[in-house]
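Below is a typical protein record.
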Amino acid sequence: MKRLKNRYVVMLILMFCFTLSMSKVKAIDYSELDLAPGEEVVAETTKYYKTVTVISRSDLMIKANLGEISSITTEVTKEEYDNAPTDEELKMAPRDVIENWSTETAYKRLTSIITKYSDELFRYRAILEWKNIPKTRSYDIIGVGFYASVKVATVIDLANEYCRSANDCDETQGYYPYEGLNGGAAVFRLPSGTLTSLKQTLLVEVEKRNPSSTIVSQVCVADYSHATKSISYDRAKQFYVDTGGITLNGIKSYYDEMGTATAYWEGTW
């Protein structure tokens, strides 16, 4: 019976996926990456995702006889992402229309970037940009998977940036850095309150695991797990990262599922 309910909810979500047209969002601007002098972008991939959530106590939830929020995340085109409405545009919709909505649709963009920093170091970045600010704010995870031919060279860095208005922007402090054989990540809490923009950037600097080896290919698999319900800081650390992305250990029900963004590099290092 539970399986039938879950199938019913998925069908309802897919039926109510909708796209509203309006604003444009610019592509990744390298000037925003804070590249060091001489640092060069050598590979990049961007993926666009849409999350459709059935709102609690809505008509859909009542018909499905479910009490918890249910959501599904799918990959979409850049065109759909660009044309999707921002939170500010959604506020302009008539009040009676908003009250009758049974679903919420949120868009986000995930980018994977490989840069050459020096003859000895490369840098991997995962960037998650929210077009629509998430309603649930708990402990999220952002990570990059990579080949075992490299290892983390310095401290894993996270920039958790947000704005409350055009002239009021800041970064949250504090995160849990994860370092594994095939990946690096950070666990952090999303900022609270009313936000106008939100972006996370994970930077992992790598060096050769064997200094005398010759590396002919690299991969940076960017992934992001957003908590759809409250989870404790300690429980959120139950995961690992590799070239398959983020794998959650016993906490999968707390997070949404989205695809990865993978940047490939080929050459001689």
About this structure: The chain has one domain: 2-266. The chain is about 15% helix and 45% strand. The first strand starts at residue 40 and ends at 54. The radius of gyration is 20 Å.
